Amino acid sequence: MAKYKFGDKVVTPQGKATVEEDQEDGSKDVKVQLQGEDVAHIYNEDDLSLDNDKDFDQ
Fold first, then answer.
1. Bridge pairing between strands 9-12 and 29-34
2. Nearest Cα residue to 12 out of 55, 53, 37, 41
3. What are the φ/ψ torsions at residue 45 (nearest 5 degrees)?
4. What's the CA gap between 42 and 27, in Å, rounded?
5. Are 10 and 16 in contact (CB under 8 A)?
6. Which of 36, 47, 50, 53 is least surrounded, with the fewest CB atoms within 10 Å of its CB?
7. Which residues have CB under 8 Å from 30's CB, separation 6+?
8. What is the pTM of this model?
């Protein structure tokens, strides 16, 4: 089980996002904010992957 932390850069099925709060122990839900959006979304951790793109914010 991956444990996503606040500020982690991830890739979702809808695009790149930033984790908005630490993932709770025992939960598969991760709260993220997609680039260019003002609201957060909840994704299952299985739908996310860490983004290793150094130009994430550009």
1. unpaired
2. 41
3. -60, -25
4. 11
5. yes
6. 36
7. 4, 10, 19, 23, 42, 43, 44, 45, 48
8. 0.84
Taking every pair of C-alpha atoms in the chain, what is the biggest distance, in angstroms?
33
- φ and ψ at 32, to 5 degrees? -130, 160
* Residue 25: both structure tokens together: 């122990």
Q: Helix, strand, or coil here: 29?
A: strand
Q: Judge whether 40 and 3 are in contact, CB under 8 Å.
A: no
Q: Compute the distance between CA of residue 57 and CA of residue 47 in angstroms, rounded to an integer.
A: 21
Closest CA to 48 of 6, 5, 13: 13
pLDDT in tens, 10-55: 999 999 999 999 999 999 999 999 999 999 999 999 999 998 876 6
According to the model, what pLDDT value does residue 2 have?
67
